[in-house]
Every structure is written in C-alpha cells, then in structure tokens.
Amino acid sequence: MTEHTPQDASRRNFIKGVIAAGAAVSSAAYVFRTGPLAGQQAPGSPGSVERLLTLTVNGQERRVDVMKQETLAMTLRYKLGLTGTKLGCDRSECGACTVLVDDVPHYSCSVLTHSVRGKKIQTIEGLASATGALHPVQQGVVDEQGFQCAFCMPGFVMATVGYLKTTPTPTRQELAHGISGNLCRCQDYDKILTAMMRGAEYMRRV
Ligand code: FES
Ligand code: FES
Predict the structure, then answer these.
(1) Ligand 2 closest atom vs CA 187
(2) Measured between alpha carbons, how far is residue 143 from residues 147, 195, 196 in Å?
(3) Of 178, 181, 189, 177, residue with least CA distance to 148
(4) Residue with CA nearest ligand 2 atom 4
(5) How many CB atoms lie within 10 A of CB 97?
(6) How does 38-63 read in b/e, with b if 16+ C-beta sit within 10 Å?
(7) From the alpha carbon of 97, which atom of ligand 1 is closest?
(8) Which of 9, 90, 162, 193 is the most exposed place for a label (fewest CB within 10 A)?
(9) Distance between CA atoms of residues 56 and 100, nearest Å
(10) Ligand nearest to the CA of residue 157, numbered in listed order
C-alpha cells in the first residue's frame, strides 16, 4: 500500500492550485470584464504579466490563461489536455517531459510557459501526419517493440526526433549519447536504442 507523505500532500495541493487558479481567473474574467481582479495588477502596469497567451502548439494557435510561474509541462498537460507529455521527476532529471521548442528538445517541466511565446512547440501528439501516418521514429517503436511500460516513451521519441534533425545518420553510440538525458525506469535501454535506430533508418527513407 502506498503511504502518503506530507510532501505528496503539498505537491498535490500545488498542482490543484495551478489548475484551480487558472480556472477561477478564467471564469472571473467573464464576470468582471471592466477591470483587474482584486489583488491583480492591471495589464500594462509596472511588473504585470499578460496572462492570456497565444501559443503555437503542434501547428495550431492555442489561446490559454497562464500564470507567470507556470511551466510548459503544466500548461500542456493540464490546460491544453496534451497528456502525451509525461511528468516524471518534474526537476530536469528524467526527460519524460521532453518536447521540441523551435525544433530543439527541452525539458518542459523546467521551461516557463511565458518564455516560449512566439516559438514553435511540438509534442508527441503533433508527430503523426494529418492522415494519421506515424512519424518514422514512432514507427520504429512499433516495429521494434522497444518499451516495457512506455511511460518514458514520448520523451525518448521527442528527444530522438530533435537529435535526428541535426544528426540524421548517427552511429548507435552517438544516438545513445544524444538521448542520454532521458531515463527509463524499466531499464529497457538496449531495446529502446534499437527502436530509435530503426526510426532513424526510416527517417532517412522519407
Ligand atoms: S519530468 Fe521533466 S525532466 Fe523529469
Ligand atoms: S519503459 Fe517503463 S519507464 Fe521506460
């Protein structure tokens, strides 16, 4: 049985707070349209941060209400419903939350959403083509059955897609080094690497 520690409780409260605060301000904005909410700074006042952002995610413009301290992983998962981006450690250690920002892999748990305004964000949901055809790296995963539980899979796929943009013909060792910022709790590294190398091969055929 899992024991819940005070740390778990405070973390849960934090996450609830992120969601609840966003929802509360969104709905309040409809009611009090004429001015800032109590305790909030008016837009344009010194130190204020515009909370309503337009983000470009998977080729679509998405309007979203974002707190100034909110991470991209939180916005993607809990505001935009893109739960393919996983949260493992939430502190830049595991790579489960990897997404591409302007084609470069980033840990979305450690990127503030406000810092990616005007940038192109791509998540695992945006890899398949409009016709539903899998991205070559996703196809490599399917063909090689590279993962056990696959919790880490979206992060590995996004890291590999990003790496292949700059190094399209890596050796196995080079690719292992290129995606070494991603961890797998099932310790399935050999099979994962085989799947990623298969994906690299498929990409060269496209
Ligand atoms: S959840 Fe972002 S690096 Fe682990
Ligand atoms: S396959 Fe389970 S964490 Fe990687």
Answers:
(1) 4
(2) 11, 8, 10
(3) 189
(4) 184
(5) 28
(6) eeeeeeeeeeeeebebebbbbeeebe
(7) 2
(8) 9
(9) 12
(10) 2
Cα dihedral: 95, 186, 175, 72 (round 10)? -10
How far, in Å, from the CA of 50 to the mean position of ligand 2? 38
Pocket test for ligand 2, best of 89, 185, 196 (most atoms within 8 A of CB): 185
Question: Which two structure tokens, joined as six digits, stand for 62?
Answer: 């998405």
- Give the number of whichever ligand sits closest to the CA of residue 158: 1
Q: Write the single-letter amino acid at 173.
A: Q
Higher per-residue confidence, 146 vs 192: 192
Average pLDDT value for residue range 77-100: 98
Condensed to tens digits (0 to 9), the pLDDT of residues 194-206 reads 999 999 999 999 8
